[in-house]
Amino acid sequence: MPNVSRLAAPLALAFIALLLAAQLASGDGKAPLLKNARVTPGAGDDSIDYLFTVTYQDEENESPSSMRVYIDGKAHDMAPVDPLDANFSDGRDYSYKTQLKTGTYAFYFKASDGSNESQTVAQTIQVESTSIFRMEHSDLIRVGLGVLPFVLVLVVIVIIQLRRIGKNIERLSAGKGSQVETQMAAGEKPAETETPAKAETGQEPDD
């Protein structure tokens, strides 16, 4: 009996060690952590790119066997932002870029370290049409600022043309005035426009 009691403790310790080893071998460790799940920009239209990003963190420093973003139920593989970052215990960023059509989308992120999975809470994003009839005030302001330089150039061109026309009129008026002064200085009577009566009869009209 004393020999059995002496062997009980080592056997119990050996059994516990085997259980722990079996758990580690079967991958019953901690699940990875997903944080900073987001999409940039958080809203927009169907003409821009949307960047889905998330940070994968594993306390056991295990790399993900899969890292995906699900957009309306469809899975998309994500790529590491920094492929040289091999430290998963302090977090590694993953991203996926795409364009979206007009509509409302639900998305979430899901990762696995080969034995445990993690999933984020679902979020939504609203994608608007680029149609001019559905533009926000900020979009209209942006369009207006883009057109403003062309409008200013057009206004400057019109002002220059008007000035040229005004100068031509002044030159014509100055030329006629000089002609009249020259005739008066020479003792000539400036040419007058004949009245209708004089033009028909050749005589001065009666007073």
What's this entry about, in short?
The chain is an alpha+beta fold and 207 residues long.
Could you walk me through the main structural features you see in this protein, from its secondary elements to its overall organization?
The chain has two domains: 27-131, Immunoglobulin-like (Sandwich); 135-185. The chain has 207 residues and is of the alpha+beta class. The strands form two sheets. Strands 2, 4, 5, 8, 9 and 10 form a six-stranded mixed sheet that branches. It has helices spanning 2-26, 137-185, 196-201, and strands at residues 33-40, 44-45, 49-57, 66-71, 74-77, 79-80, 92-99, 103-112, 117-119, 123-128. Strand 8 and strand 9 (117-119) form a beta hairpin. The longest helix is centred in the C-terminal third of the chain and has 49 residues, at 137-185.
Number of domains: 2
Strand segment tally: 10
Coarse morphology = rod-shaped
Nearest-angstrom radius of gyration? 44 Å
Biggest sheet statistics:
6 strands, mixed
Looking at the overall shape, the CATH architecture of the largest domain is: Sandwich
Poorly predicted segments: none
Tally of helical segments: 3
Would you give the CATH topology of the largest domain?
Immunoglobulin-like
CATH class of the largest domain: Mainly Beta
What order do the helices and strands follow? HEEEEEEEEEEHH
Fraction of residues in helices? 25-40%
Beta fraction: 25-35%
Helix and strand composition category: alpha+beta
The overall average pLDDT, rounded, is 81
Distance between the termini: 163 Å
